[in-house]
Amino acid sequence: MAMNKWWRSDPNERYWVEITNRDDIGTNLLAPQVDDRGKPYWSYTLVREVRPGDLVLHWDKNHGPGVVGYSHVRGEAFASTITWQSRGTYGRQRSASGPEPAWKAPLGGYRKLKHPVTQARLREIEPTIRALRDRLMEAVGEPLYFPFALSSTRPLRAAQGYLTKLPLALVEELPELRELRQTAVSEPHEPEVPDLSPASLPKQRRAATGYGRQRDVQRRQAVERYAMDLVLSHYRSHGYEVEDVGAHSPWDITARKNGTEVHVEVKGSTTTREAIDLTEGEVRHAEGVLTCLVVIDQIELGDDLRCHGGRWRTWNDWAPARAELVATAYRYPLPAGGTEGHPPA
Questions:
Q1: Listed range (4-8, 171-175, 334-338) with the worst mean pLDDT
Q2: Which of 97, 172, 220, 248 is the most exposed place for a label (fewest CB within 10 A)?
Q3: 170 pLDDT higher than 90
Q4: What is the 3-state composition of the chain as percent helix, strand, coil, each rounded to the nearest 5?
């Protein structure tokens, strides 16, 4: 079955939509390898296209309807089995099957959206979604495997299918999905604010967009230093003896008072943060030692690198759950056989 794998050339296209009425949302992606007629079906075959670290939004038909939460892909898809009953017109004429060959991909870290993206909300911006779809179609061809059905006779509704491809440009259009944008990036340090307008989608796909590493290292360091100084001053004002240990320890600040020692992890940002980047060392330390996480976002940064303001949020007794960590980078042991010297011309 030939597929238009238009997302393959852009590593930022990491979003999918599962359209389902299952009760165990966020457990896995699971679809038969063929449809009722014994033929490959694009919406089932797409399960094989997800990659570890991709984000899967869950469209719940039973509650809303709308996107109620999201999960991340934890491993490559593999062959499995499924016992299922189609719900279409043809499926109602067919009894439930025994175990059939299926494609399955493990999911983890299911989180409910703070503000679900309802069908009614999407219908409010249907002209924008339609324009976005048309521009993308012009750029990458058809089919898009778009998650929503758009027509001149009926309002927007979920596509007829199981797994669909959600374009990055549509994720950027919805403020409710800011958390996903920040979770999916490969290096979510100080972000550059992307142009989120539909007109910003070019005819050729972008090489990168939004939430990349801040090119101006001095600006990023100024924000980090400002956040650290605020937290150090806060603990000093409450009678703690404090030490900045970030240069040689997997946490940032040690605060001591009356025989009690507190380890503090500090994150600073100029934008509204719904996700942060963590190192393996930071995670392991917080799993084993009582740690306080302080995030100061919405910091204002001037051209002279002076910072002010910021919103404080604190998580005492913080321990990141492994199931909620999303892989954004890999450490790759180099294989034997590399050729010394420059590559051939």
A1: 334-338
A2: 248
A3: yes
A4: 25, 25, 50
Q: Is the per-residue pLDDT at 88 higher than 50?
A: no
Q: What is the pLDDT of residues 194-222, one digit of tens each?
A: 433 444 444 343 344 344 444 478 899 99
3-state SS, residue 282? helix
Q: Name, in order, each residue with C-beta under 8 angstroms of 23's C-beta and a sequence gap of 6 or more.
A: none
In the Cβ-directed half-sphere of 315, how many Cα atoms lie within 13 Å?
Answer: 11
Q: Please report, rounded to a whole number, the percentage of residues in the chain having pLDDT higher than 70.
A: 87
Helix (H, G, I), strand (E, B) or coil at 318: coil
DSSP 8-class letter at 5: -
DSSP at 195:
-
Q: Scan for tokens 């038909």, then name that residue.
A: 61
* Closest to 183 (Cα-Cα) out of 71, 105, 74, 270: 71
What residues form DSSP beta bridges with 59? 19, 67
Rounded Cα–Cα distance for residues 60 and 56 (Å)? 12
The structure tokens listed for 78 are: 């593999």
How does DSSP classify residue 221? H
List the one residue out of 267, 225, 224, 259 whose CA is nearest residue 240: 259
> CA 195, CA 264: separation in Å to the nearest integer?
35
| Residue 283 structure tokens | 């995670």
Domains, the chain, ordered by start? 6-200 (no CATH), 217-324 (3.40.1350.10)
- Tell me the pTM: 0.76
Residue 240: other Cβ atoms inside 10 A: 20
Tokens (6 digits) for 91 = 């499926």
Q: How would you classify the pairing of strands 291-297 and 260-268?
A: parallel
Among residues 98, 107, 119, 113, the alpha carbon closest in space to that of 24 is found at 107
Q: What is the C-alpha separation between 168 and 6, in angstroms, rounded?
A: 12
Question: pLDDT exceeding 90 applies to what percent of the chain?
Answer: 68
What span, in angstroms and rounded, lies between the C-alpha atoms of 32 and 102? 4
